[in-house]
């Protein structure tokens, strides 16, 4: 008598309709994120955090730098240490609604942020992106913002999935001060 348990093959599971077509992709299921995804309420200008932030002192709002048309601030819920956002001051939701001046300055602040973070944080790469609209995953779709996420070799781990915990080695205020101090004067 064998102690081994016979498991169904992937092919038989596919044929039964119990699973999708197997492929090379490894998947991590995170159903706890449905609460975040399903909340598609969007702030109006009077209570938009990206419209309110510039009204506060830089340290309080986690603002790193201010331009004429846009500004850079730390993400309050970072994917990684140093996760910055670049936002226009004007309350617009889509990239194609931004003026040429706003687009140019968002690009300029993004480039400066990358140089500064490489200098002060020693990051090896970046993820840059804009999620346009709730359907595309924008948490605050009502106000345009560019994500700049610094990356290091082996910076991802299992904590967010298993323990619902993000390991961030520095406090937001300390990161803001380090980046703001190294930011070049206009």
What keyword list fits this structure?
186 residues, alpha+beta, 5-stranded antiparallel sheet, 7 helices, 31% helix, globular
Spell out the blueprint of helices and strands:
Blueprint: H1 10-16, H2 34-38, H3 49-52, H4 58-61, E1 63-66, E2 70-74, E3 84-88, H5 100-121, E4 125-129, E5 146-151, H6 159-162, H7 172-182
Antiparallel strand pairs: 1-2, 2-3, 3-5, 4-5
Please, could you describe this protein's structure?
The protein is built from seven helices and five strands; from the N terminus they run ααααβββαββαα. The chain has helices at residues 10-16, 34-38, 49-52, 58-61, 100-121, 159-162, 172-182; strands at 63-66, 70-74, 84-88, 125-129, 146-151. With 186 residues, the protein is an alpha+beta fold. Strands 1-2-3-5-4 form a five-stranded antiparallel beta sheet. It is globular. The chain has one domain (41-182): 2-Layer Sandwich (HIT family, subunit A). The mean pLDDT is 82.
């Amino acid at each position: 008598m064998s102690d081994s348990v016979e498991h169904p093959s992937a092919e038989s599971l596919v044929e039964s309709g119990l699973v999708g077509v197997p492929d090379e992709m490894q998947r991590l299921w995170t159903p706890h994120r449905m609460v975040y995804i399903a909340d598609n309420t969007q702030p109006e200008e009077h209570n938009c955090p990206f419209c309110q932030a510039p009204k506060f002192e830089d340290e309080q709002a986690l603002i790193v730098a201010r331009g004429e048309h846009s500004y850079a601030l730390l993400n309050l819920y970072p994917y990684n240490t140093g996760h910055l956002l670049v936002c226009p001051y004007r309350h617009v939701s889509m990239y194609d609604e931004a003026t040429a001046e706003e687009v140019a300055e968002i690009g300029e602040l993004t480039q400066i942020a990358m140089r500064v973070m490489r200098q002060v944080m020693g990051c090896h790469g970046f993820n840059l992106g804009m999620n346009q609209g709730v359907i595309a995953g924008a948490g605050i779709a009502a106000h345009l913002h560019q994500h700049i996420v610094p990356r290091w070799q082996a910076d991802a781990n299992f904590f967010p999935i298993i323990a619902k915990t993000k390991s961030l080695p520095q406090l937001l205020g300390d990161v803001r001060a380090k980046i703001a101090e190294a930011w070049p004067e206009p």
